[in-house]
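Person: At home tonight, work slowly through the protein below, taking as long as you need, and write a paragraph about the fold.
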Amino acid sequence: MEKSDDLNAAISKLFLVISRLDSPNSWNTGLLEYVIVMRARSGIRCALTVNVEWERTTAKGIRVNISITRQCSHMSYGTILITAAEKGLSVPEVIVLDGRVYLQHVGQAPEHEGVQLRRVRPKRGWRRVVRGLLVTVLLFLFVVQTITWSTAEAESAKMSFSETTTMRQWMTERLAEREGLFTFKYSGDTGKLTANLSEAMNVALHSDPFIRYNVSRYSFHWKGTEQSALVTVTVEYRETYAESLYVRQEAKRIVKELLSAKMSDYETVKKLHDYVVLHVAYDESLNKFTAYEALVDKKTVCQGYALLMQALLEEADIPSIVLEGQAGGTLHAWNVVQVDGLWYHLDTTWDDPVPDQKDGLRHTYFLLSDEEMKVDHRWDVLKAPRADKAFSIK
């Protein structure tokens, strides 16, 4: 086995086996370590450890560099091995080893018999021990999560609906409470159930801006018969229920501190507008989207500005909506507010200088009409009340 011919024969057999794999191209990178076990004429079992830095020259002309190392010992290796003794096997690839081309008797396997391969089991170093512990912990957490989800599913599945109106209302309530998983039974024709579920989610999302802009993604699926189904909905949120409650509590506190009963609508809206602009900075990393982050981290993007402003306006009993459109060539959100019975646009994001200035405060986009706002903002006019008149202090 110490002869180069024996080594070359073993290497040839190795590449013959590799060429037979169903998808060898998936092995294009990394280090593959194999052991070639061969019975020599003397009867001594010799092991050749072959490290393949896996690139190779295929029939399509892709270049290969292969590193081979050899070890020989009398150790007995267990053999759950892949055999390569089959004859007449086509070898479609040209092998390059250290600059030398091996044509491998193209179209026919070599005559060597008893050559077998197995993957070497690496020693369990400390990294593998740590990895094993991490896998165990993750598996445990997965099982716990599965049990939790199963419990939630069992509780929600107690709900049953036979028509879509109450189903939509109940689903809206689940989103308002930031439930991440809920399940219910549906009794009735399931032919249009998928469409009805899509509509129900759309209605729920548009029922409240604090639902719509805090849901980051959702999915649903159902299983059943033509007359009944079990429906499961999963939702991911940008804010937890506790964080949404915090926004409401802070809005109540801020309004109580800033406003007085004697203030006009104009004074109220201006006070709240100025508070948001002065206490929040635009998040140039574009990672913060919520009113909660605007309050706690003092940073957010446009929808966080608009949601915080909306929470304050609602607490102050000022009619308002969050309007979504485009500005500056990108998606944007701002508010439309009612002052003394008339509607106006209000954009705290664009009134806040970037980069942030400690006392930077503008009123460029404070109480604008449609005509004034549409200079650099675009929106669906059917989704917002008309702001026909320019503002003037009465």
About this structure: The longest strand covers residues 215-224. The two ends are 103 Å apart (CA to CA). The CA atoms of residues 168 and 199 lie 8 Å apart. The longest helix spans residues 126-156.
